[in-house]
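dude i think i finally got it to work??
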Amino acid sequence: MIVAKFGGSSLADAAQFQKVRNIIFADSRRTFIVPSAPGRRFDEDEKVTDLLYRCHTEQAEGKAFQKTFEEIRKRYDDIANGLKLSIELELYFDEIYHKIAMGASADYCASRGEFLNGLLLANYLEFEFLDASEVIFFDEQGIFDSEKTNDVLGKRLEKLENAVIPGFYGSNPDGSIRAFSRGGSDITGAIVARAAKAELYENWTDVSGFLMADPRIVTNPCQISHITYHEMHELCSAGATVLHEDCVFPVSRAGIPTNIRNTNLPEHPGTMITCTAVKRGDFAIFAGVSGKKGLSLLLVEKAQTDRSWAFVQGVLQAAKKCGLTFQYLPSGINCVCLLVETKKYHRVQDFFAEEIKKLNISHSLTIQPEIAGIVLVGYGIAHNRLTVNRIYEALRRQNIGVVMINQGSGELSTWVGVAENEMEAAIRVIYKEFA
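look at this
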């Protein structure tokens, strides 16, 4: 059984709905469908979710939101009329308009995009409609309640042959609507796949899977046909953006593979994401390369005369206490080196320094800003002893200075630090060396 999620570009208009229907009925295993709100139909177009957020803002500022709301209504009417659907949306529009006028939350407003699109798609497919607010739950702190959701949703799905479950939102303990962060329909799809015990989670979008590098930096990069969840997370941590960062956790923990597919090119196999690389036929030295700017290299080093063994643990505890997250941690027994987001560090730097002083260990603290972190990812990396040498030599030949280079012990990735203004050139050099 397959759970299939379709993004906003896949459901932007009636013609896209027809493509989605053909895809779903091409394989009877596609049982549970998770839709996003309608996306852009052309470059200058606006996403329905953005229009709904604008309605909320206009109402909150005391401005008239009727014109924006009519744009939204027309988008759905055009889809319904184009597909000759029997569903009547007027009562739903009246209710949504009234609630926005009465000051409904931003989460409620934004969620109506997926809600309405789910109604249309369920009617078009002749599937059951299952409102996400009935089966996806958040706790009192607004944190997603994965186990309650999995239990309730799983039991509901057992009773359904086919269903459409709108993405992006669920409900608070008091029944009010709470939305995931933007891109959250990907999370809903993975949640449904886990609860349904699917054999495969398909994520249909407007790209044919992952590329080995950002096409805005590298010309015509190769496609990744197979990648593991761990490799994907490493690439995303350094700037790659294809899936929502939280969207694969439910399926990865359940051992369910994810297939990224292109609605506009359904014959393309896309990228398969699995828990292990055992079945990967094209086992290459690396799966991809990505980079992220706006980083700083923070070095906290204790005096050589100090014999304390608690220094590293103390520094990490201090970072945790002040909420300082880091991208990478190349450290030793006498020092802690953190690759951090510069803006986040500046917000907590005084607090962090004070916490370090409380350790009562003689130390120095230095920071090197304007760093770009580049990660070379792939299980084949650590099996090749010359990887670090090849990276260093390739960059040296192009006169690109290396601020940091470190190969992880998990046989997965190598991190390279360069000056921000040299990131794009460094990525091109590394890609050419290993692709």
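The mean pLDDT is 91.
im so relieved honestly
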